[in-house]
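User: I'm putting together a teaching handout on how multi-component assemblies are represented. Below are the sequence lines for each component of a complex, exactly as they appear in our records. Could you produce the 3D structure of the whole assembly as structure tokens, so the students can see both representations side by side? Please keep the chain order the same as the input.
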Amino acid sequence: NAGVIQTPRHKVTGKGQEATLWCEPISGHSAVFWYRQTIVQGLEFLTYFRNQAPIDDSGMPKERFSAQMPNQSHSTLKIQSTQPQDSAVYLCASSLQREGGGSAETLYFGSGTRLTVL
Amino acid sequence: GQQVQQSPASLVLQEGENAELQCNFSTSLNSMQWFYQRPEGSLVSLFYNPSGTKQSGRLTSTTVIKERRSSLHISSSQITDSGTYLCAMRAGGYKVVFGSGTRLLVSP
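Assistant: Of course. Below is the structure of the complete assembly, with chains in the same order as your input.
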């Protein structure tokens, strides 16, 4: 089990360029979460998928940010027209989320993608 | 307002001392977890502990639902315990909200 895999580890973009971040959840996990971490805001929830369906995107900035999960083995977070304030570490997590909850809710995080917008 | 309040924000210990980290929640919670974030940034789950007390080695987590709080006790701290400790709660639905973390530095 390789854990949650995120690529790339680091990404540098110029202002106005597009950035696509990739996440491969742990095999068999039905839930995928995206978070953003900055020193000022800490860990902020962005969006959540369950069985590939988008369930809650209440944390996503309404413009320029989009997330997809085209199949159970990967999810993408796309930021269009990146701005310096988008610079952050973007973290993906997955969990089993079986019926009945319990420890199946434990989140397993990837190593994150550090996005720097110049 | 902030749903999850963590304290202290930072803590410096000498090796061998104990630490008590606190999380307080502004709403009733369905579940909570403790995480350790290594200095290089990776996050590791320590406990899934929605209620009661759980122990793993030198770490003990206690969650009291009625009082909307959870604590993490680290006994006999070691230099390798240095890093950031984060608590996270799920109040409803599946969104997990994190506290701002406690930065722990253990010195020789």
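A couple of points students might notice: The two ends of chain A are 36 Å apart (CA to CA). The mean pLDDT of chain A is 92.
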